[in-house]
Amino acid sequence: MLSMTAFFYIIFVGVPIVCFLYWNYFRPTSLWNGFFFLISSGVLYTLLILLLEKANQSLALIFLVPVILVILFLSVLGLSASIVGLFWNEKVLLKREGRSFSNLVPLIVALGLLGVQALMLLVTFYSRNIFLTTLLGFSTATLFYLIFLFIMYGTTAILYNHFPITKKVDYIIILGAGLIDGERVTPLLASRIDRGVALYVRQKRKYGHEPTIILSGGKGPDEKISEAQAMKHYLDSLPVIIKTVYLEEQSTNTEENIQFSEKLAGVRDGISDFKDKQVVIATNNYHLLRAGKIATRLGIHARGVGSKTKMYYLPTAFIREYVGYLVMTKRKHLLFIGFFFIVSLLQFIMYFVAK
Questions:
Q1: What residue stretches are annotated with the DUF218 domain (predicted)?
Q2: 251 CB-near residues (< 8 Å, 6+ apart)
Q3: How many helices (H) and strands (E) does the chain have?
Q4: What is the Cα 20 distance to its own chain's centre?
Q5: What is the pLDDT of residues 233-291, one digit of tens each?
Q6: Which of 349, 317, 337 is nearest to 154 (CA)?
Q7: Would you list the domain boundaries of the chain?
Q8: DSSP labels for 263-326?
Q9: If you classify domain 166-309 with CATH, what class do you get?
């Protein structure tokens, strides 16, 4: 029979690690990937502290105290610090990028969090008001659910961005973006192309293999040429000779980028689909996970390479991507929020019934 210690290690250490390894390799875009990574990391870190405590208590404290301080800070000041950080980010963003609705994302989120804090303060003065108490309960449950998802989404995005490409790649799909003056690539789009080309060069150097690059992006209403054509012009200016480049010029969003690239490859190379091919998506780091999730929905097991984004722009861009993920998977999230609402409503009704 297994001893209790062995059983403990198998259940609380082995299972989370095995689950993480499985999800990270076979289902890398699933939020369970981020969840099991955090659980595994927490378990291993706790195990490290316990082992250190047996050898040297002072050394164990050095590893333990910073974690406790971080948890206390997030518990007590996390919400307030997030609000201040978002307001500061909004100020920097407007100064550098100008005013637009999409650039107001940090402000909108900050005001939403501030509203929850104001509700908390209001309930402390009117704690007997069942309506305010019920509203706070529902708002808090929904907020914690969204924060939990955001942490899982962020962790999964980091893991997906940093998974090494260790096999020969068949296709590198570089996703398009808006153009300058309707005909030139922006620095953001140029960084996507550079990231895709860097992978191409590594593949050629390491395996003697030259993947097909697909430049994907249609022509917007305010653009003179297609994004794919503008990307090709930029690609031609680089000191790298690409053997095979396809231009996909019909797509208007990420799903069409991937879908139409698959159809184009089918026409040009005579393949039925991407399911048996090694496909890599090149885009910005904040956008990579959602692009990967869309590919998974289309039945394509794609990996990705993400180009860096300016730090001041990253919070806005990542929040937008997170909102995009919530919209994309809205049914299950509405079920959870609906459950919180029903529980709160029942508590509200039971209060008056008991009275």
A1: 170-324
A2: 176, 216, 217, 218, 257, 259, 260, 261
A3: 12, 7
A4: 17
A5: 999 999 999 999 999 999 999 999 999 999 999 999 999 889 889 999 999 999 999 99
A6: 317
A7: 1-55, 79-162+311-355, 166-309
A8: HHHHHHH--S-STTS-EEEEEEHHHHHHHHHHHHHTT--EEEEEE---TTTHHHHHHHHHHHHH
A9: alpha beta
